[in-house]
Each structure stands twice: as structure tokens, then as C-alpha cells.
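I would love for you to help me understand the pair of lines that follows before we discuss the fold together.
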Amino acid sequence: MKRSETQAARLRTALQKVVLLRETGPKSAAWHRARIQTIWHIHTLMDKLKNQTDSEDENSSSC
């Protein structure tokens, strides 16, 4: 497994855990705000990783 695939798997797992915390976590508005910010942060990291992987694939195929 490539490093980027491992990182993507870890990010997906982290995202699943944060999403599931809605049912089991605290009910305060501040906690939910922090949870949503974490979800968006993980999505941003996943997009950056995908873009990085795509650009590496383009560079390797053009050689």
C-alpha cells in the first residue's frame, strides 16, 4: 500500500469516528461547533492529499 493510500485510509477512519460522535458525544453547541470544524478540516486534508496524489500521477505518466 502506498503512503498516500495509508494516509487516506487514516483520514477516512478519523472522519467516520468524528461523524459517529454525534450520537455518543456531548450535546453542547460548542462541542458540535468544534466537531463540525474538525469534519471540515479532515475534508480539507483529504482534498489536499487527493490533489497531491493526482499531480504525482500526472508527473509520473508524462515521463
Remarks:
- Residues 18 and 24 are 10 Å apart (CA to CA).
- Helices lie at 3-24, 29-62.
- The chain is about 90% helix and 0% strand.
